[in-house]
Amino acid sequence: MWPLPGAIAYGGDYNPEQWPRAVWDEDVALMRQAGVNLVSVGIFSWAMLEVSEGVFDFTWLDDLLDLLHANGIAVDLATPSVSPPAWFFHAYPHARAVDADGHVMGFGSRGMAGHSAPEYREAIVRVASALAERYGDHPAVVLWHVHNEYGVPVGEDFSASSVASWRRWLQQHYGSIEALNAAWGTAFWGQTYRAWEHVVAPARTPTTVNPAMKLDWARFTDDMLRECFRLERDAIRAHSDRPVTTNFMAHQSWNTDLWKWAREVDVVSDDHYLWSPDPDAHVALALSADLTRSVAGGKPWILMEHSTSAVNWQGRNIAKRPGEMSRNALTHLGRGADAIMFFQWRASRRGAEKFHSAMVPHAGTSSRVFREVTDLGQQLRQLGEVQGSQVRAEVAVLYDWESLWAQDLDWRPSDDLAFRERMRSYYERLWRDSVPVDFAHPEADLSGYSLVVAPASYLLTTIAADNLTAFVRAGGTLLVSCFAAAVDEHDAVHEGGFGAPLAEALGVTVEEYLPLRAGDTCTVDFGGQRLAADVWTEDLVLTGAQVRGRYLGGPADGAPAITRHELGSGVGWYVSTRLDTDSLAPVLAAAYADAGITPPALPEHLELMVRHGESADYAVAVNHHDDAAHVALSGTEIFSGQEIDGELTVPGGGVAVVRTAPTPDRDDVITPAHAVPQQVRNTYA
């Protein structure tokens, strides 16, 4: 259960150890002014807490927690395991992480430890236990925050400790060296192993590494990170009953399979930072928010970090424009977040992140940013009734981190066809069409969705393919993008060729991939409409599908490009080329028609999200345009108290939240938790 009943949590990372004690009193007064009711404490404070091995000093933290509690500010208390102190690395230099080139990571940053090192694991349990034993029942502590952004900046570790763990992990999962050789296809290039001690990590090699080995290495890395989390979580639970989380990075993370991670936390939390080169970064924000809600099983989640304005680590750290912070925050809330948090409370004067924005910026409390922080706090205080309400969707987008890892390995047919790009293009089409979506694992229960979209399913197990085929046969509409079902869980091409596991669902297989040269394009004739395509084409073999679009130009000139296949009472679409977001519009429109979905007619750039509660629904409207937008809606606008009778006007760059009559539950709409697979995939069965 969320620890602040009836309130939207608001605040951010608080690092008072960077400031004189006198500043703390000023901070809590400003927090109360801004409406802050939750702060994260201690994320980078290991050196301040365990001053030497086994010697703890909690004096400053005792004072801080008591001060925050006395001022009505709750605490998300962190374990500091992301940044071991200098004494640790002096005592255990072999516990430092090593990169693929054999370079040992030096001290002076964060995330430097190898996650398999026994001394590191012993130390993180010790500090987590000490914190939980002392503060497990402290009235200020409502949530535990383990580590920080697992896999960032260090995920892979090629140290001796890691390689030893890697061999044990492989023995556990494969059982015999013969099974490993079979799974990795080591007969190719003469890589056959005769003993476990011969198996090495996929570090730097003369040419590309065995892709099956590299894929397993990604799974191993994810498992080692998650083992460390469980060690700390269980140490905390021995002394405290408060919920435990760690901050994910959703669509911005590489090393963590969040379908698996979500099972380990009591509440899902996420960090999200706008990518400043992206002029439509609010679309990527929405994608990450929907993905976070989906791995949370549809339950409300925590936005643990985002920025009030510019970040510090991008090539060009673009400041947010007036009102953008509120639009970002309300978009996260509209897509299921019950907590809106920032990094960080007060801007640091020193260190690597001194140019990162904060709730209290270097310019102080007279700044525009602090005024907007205070205004947002006032807005969120008015939205306590929204807490606990949930988002519903009729469309599921398939997302599988293992397929991401596999597709982005070396020596794929085209460097220009990438998992994240396809995911963004298809999601943005759905976003522009104002169609709410959940994300789902391809092996999850999809039975309540009307439409399932697979933008990037390069790796698809036979279990997943059977699941999608059953979905179509039972009446669902499935739309699959190119380069799908190419390989199995070991990155081996499926028996029967490319796309073979989906042949029944789609009525088509692929004889050959026909990628384009850099800069080349072609056109698809889709019912008389000319759709622009680039990067990729395929030579399709029809096994029952009807041709709905043909290539004009390119290596597949005149051949089928887009197909539609009826199976049982459902339909399977296949798009064998790379279409941009605009060109996807008529294709998705045809899929919506098959699925019985009618997208709402909304003004361009108006983002409308609905959260459904027991006694009311809440429509969150965010206007990303400078001009006012109008939308058909009735109810009470919560910020102004205005009664809306048929039409809501949202000013340019503005936000609104309207309380409306509740929408009855539908028996045929899936419960969001079903988007999460009931069983974690057993790759080695």
Question: How would you concisely characterize the structure shown here?
Answer:
This protein is of the alpha/beta class. It is 29% helix and 20% strand.
How would you explain this protein's 3D organization?
The chain is an alpha/beta fold and 685 residues long. The longest helix has 27 residues, at 211-237. It has a domain at 395-600: Rossmann fold. The protein is globular, with a radius of gyration of 26 Å.
State the secondary-structure class: alpha/beta
Low-confidence stretches: 668-672
Write down the CATH class of the domain at 395-600: Alpha Beta
CATH architectural category of the domain at 395-600? 3-Layer(aba) Sandwich
Label the overall shape: globular
Q: Report the radius of gyration as a whole number of Å.
A: 26 Å
Can you say what the CATH homologous superfamily of the domain at 395-600 is? Class I glutamine amidotransferase (GATase) domain
Percent strand equals: 15-25%
Distance between the termini: 35 Å
Strand order of the largest sheet: 13-12-14-15-22-21-20-17-18-23
Largest sheet: 10 strands, mixed
Oligomer: single chain
CATH topology assignment of the domain at 395-600: Rossmann fold
Q: What number is the mean pLDDT?
A: 96
> Considering DSSP H and I runs of 4 or more, what fraction of the residues is helical?
25-40%
The tally of helices reads 17
Strand segment count? 30
